[in-house]
Design the sequence.
């Protein structure tokens, strides 16, 4: 089973379970019904914000740690300098 199929399968299973609990076909264990009615509608937004926070943190950490990878850092700057030198010769303006 490929990774995409596994993600699709688990997404479908979790979505079905979420909607069954949202519409009270399945009771939520260890949680009062009035609390479940308040928590379940906002759960997808909470998951979306949590994922976005994690994604931004991992991106920021990657940018912060990039200078520690001196070989990649120097290679990237040499490629940028090379592109800045070659592109004007081909008629592309570089600012």
Sequence:
């Amino acid at each position: 089973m490929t990774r995409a199929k596994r993600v699709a399968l688990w997404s479908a299973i979790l979505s079905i379970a979420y909607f069954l609990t949202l519409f009270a076909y399945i009771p939520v264990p260890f949680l009062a019904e009035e609390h479940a009615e308040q928590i379940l509608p906002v759960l997808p937004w909470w998951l979306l914000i949590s994922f976005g926070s994690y994604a931004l943190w991992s991106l920021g950490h990657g940018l912060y740690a990039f200078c520690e990878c001196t070989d990649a850092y120097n290679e990237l700057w040499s490629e940028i300098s090379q592109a800045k030198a070659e592109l004007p010769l081909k008629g592309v303006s570089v600012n």
